[in-house]
Design a protein that fits this description.
Blueprint lengths: L2 H18 L1 H9 L4 H21 L11 H19 L1 H6 L5 H12 L15 H16 L1 H5 L8 H11 L12 H23 L12 H13 L16 H14 L3 H8 L3 H6 L1 H22 L11 H16 L14 H13 L12 H19 L8 E2 L2 E2 L2 H25 L8 E6 L2 E6 L2 H12 L20 H15 L3 H6 L9
Antiparallel strand pairs: 1-2, 3-4
């Protein structure tokens, strides 16, 4: 294990995190918050920069990283960023419990959006900004940004880091140089972020929050860009006007696309984008899901506990499908009280997730398509043993290893899902009643199996809100410290797609090479 090289890169990351914390520090000064809020960010900034610079002093014996080292480094980076990123919440008192604070910031960096804050309107502006800004940081991946600064001679090392942090079964460069690839990705990411902020500013301010329009547009965009979903006012996106809700729906879907496709559009290869199998499947699933949810809300077959106009039913259907499929987790209404068809559709898209190479979580559309094709080929082979299996995806014949990797990932995903669900079953909160205050009225639900099931699903798929006791108008504060630790690691497993975390905790990883 190349400890000195790992330490050097980790040191760079820590200094970078300290630099990024300057943003909420500036927000704290702008809103003239107390000295405690200023120190809440100043102290970890100094600690991160100091430790980070010390870690960069030792000179490594070799510059390259092996694959296992790259994967382990990615997991370490996310854990260290979480441990330091939680400190401001504890110092300023917005989240005084450190385990809760780690849950919150891990939820931010992994773009999950699950929260332990019961009254989001009572926390400071700097805390609201840091939570939402962590979505934007984690959306594209902090190490993808750092790859810009890794020397070109370490192309192999850079590729290992990119594979470990980027979602999807197949990861590659969009141009010959890794440094240029990462710059293109971030420029596209930044450009789309700025565009959404500008468009949201054209809407009318939210009543009662007129002075906060730019601040709220910025936070909403951070959540859309990173497909996160932290709410910063009561009711998540419910108070936003229809114009903003439609804008966010569109941008959520766009940020759920593979960013390599935007590069193809920029260089004029639009036909290649339209030929993309995953791209077509992604929009097909969204269209079908919106149609099913819309039908469940307007049909007289099911009893709907909320009355919607046709336009409202369509807008809520589009927004919630876009939000949950891209694993953002923003909400515009209490979908917990929707008919079973609507609920089942939302749960299904939470499992699927968006496209590989996007900022979204979930299993990914590409894996679902490959798994279905692989299963079909296996059935054909059973019927006709002479049949030569050939699975094509995006116009290319896939290697058997790629198909097996997809099946292995899905198996691991559901195995770890069940393990986390079992661990949550030990929580004393199970069997108790939780009161929910939503736009559908006040009602109570029992914290039971479905609450735990949806909590694990929303964390491993990095979605945010779940159902029942942890639904869109509730939070995760009622869980015990042990359950929050389990869910915190579940979020990390989902964001890094399992393998980097498993490699980190494998004893063979740490043998000297």
């Amino acid at each position: 294990m190349n400890y000195k090289k790992l330490g050097k890169i980790l040191g760079k990351i820590m200094v970078l995190e300290g630099f990024l914390m300057l943003a909420p520090l500036v927000v704290s000064l702008i809103y003239k918050e107390s000295i405690t809020n200023v120190l809440a960010f100043a102290i970890p900034i100094l600690a991160l920069c100091g430790i980070g610079m010390v870690l960069q002093v030792p000179k490594p014996s070799r510059e390259n990283l092996y694959q296992k080292e790259g994967f382990a480094l990615v997991a370490i980076v996310w854990i260290v960023m979480t441990l330091f990123g939680a400190i401001p919440f504890v110092i300023n008192g917005d989240i005084p419990n450190y385990i809760d604070a780690c849950f919150e910031i891990m939820s931010g960096f992994t773009t999950t959006g699950s929260s332990v804050i019961e009254h989001v309107d009572k926390v400071s502006h700097s805390t609201l900004f840091w939570r939402s800004f962590s979505h934007w940081i984690g959306g594209m991946g902090i190490l993808v940004f750092v790859l810009i600064f890794i020397p070109e001679s370490n192309e192999g090392s850079s590729m290992h880091l990119l594979r470990a942090e980027s979602p999807g079964p197949q990861v590659g460069k969009i141009v010959s140089k890794m440094k240029v690839t990462t710059r293109i990705l971030y420029l596209i990411y930044l450009g789309m972020t700025i565009l959404e902020v500008i468009i949201l500013m054209f809407d009318k301010p939210i009543a009662g929050y007129e002075s906060e329009q730019f601040f709220f547009s910025l936070l909403a965009t951070f959540g859309c860009a990173g497909t996160g979903g932290f709410g910063f006012i009561p009711g998540s996106m419910e108070l936003f006007h229809p114009f903003s809700q439609y804008v966010m729906s569109i941008f959520l879907i766009l940020f759920g696309c593979n960013f390599s496709l935007y590069y193809l559009i920029l260089i004029g290869k639009v036909k290649e984008v339209l030929k993309s199998e995953e791209f077509r499947a992604y929009f097909l699933i969204i269209g079908l899901a919106v149609a099913l949810v819309f039908i469940s809300l307007v049909s007289k077959v099911w009893q709907v506990q909320q009355e919607y106009t046709t336009e409202e039913a369509f807008r809520h259907s589009l927004f919630q499908v876009a939000s949950l499929m891209t694993t953002a987790g923003y909400t515009t209404t209490d979908y917990h009280v929707w008919p079973a068809l609507g609920t089942a559709t939302l749960i299904l898209v939470m499992f699927i997730g968006a496209m590989a190479g996007s900022t979204a979580g979930g299993i990914k559309v590409s894996r679902i398509v490959i798994a279905i094709k692989g299963a079909y080929v296996n059935v054909r082979k059973l019927i006709n043993p002479r049949y030569v299996p050939k699975v094509k995806f995006e116009g290319k014949t896939l290697e058997e290893k790629t198909i097996n990797d997809v099946f292995a990932y899905i198996t691991l995903y559901f195995f770890l899902f069940l393990v986390a669900l079992l661990l949550l079953s030990f929580d004393p909160i199970n069997g108790t009643k939780v009161v929910i205050n939503s736009d559908a009225g006040k009602y109570s639900v029992e914290h039971g199996f479905f609450s735990n099931f949806s909590a694990v699903l929303t964390c491993i798929s990095n979605v945010g809100p779940a159902f029942e006791a942890v639904g869109p108008y509730a939070c995760f504060a009622s869980y015990s410290g042990f359950s929050k630790i389990v869910l915190t690691f579940t979020m990390l497993l989902g964001r890094l797609e399992i393998l980097p975390v498993l490699i980190l905790f494998n004893s063979k990883t740490w043998k000297r090479v």
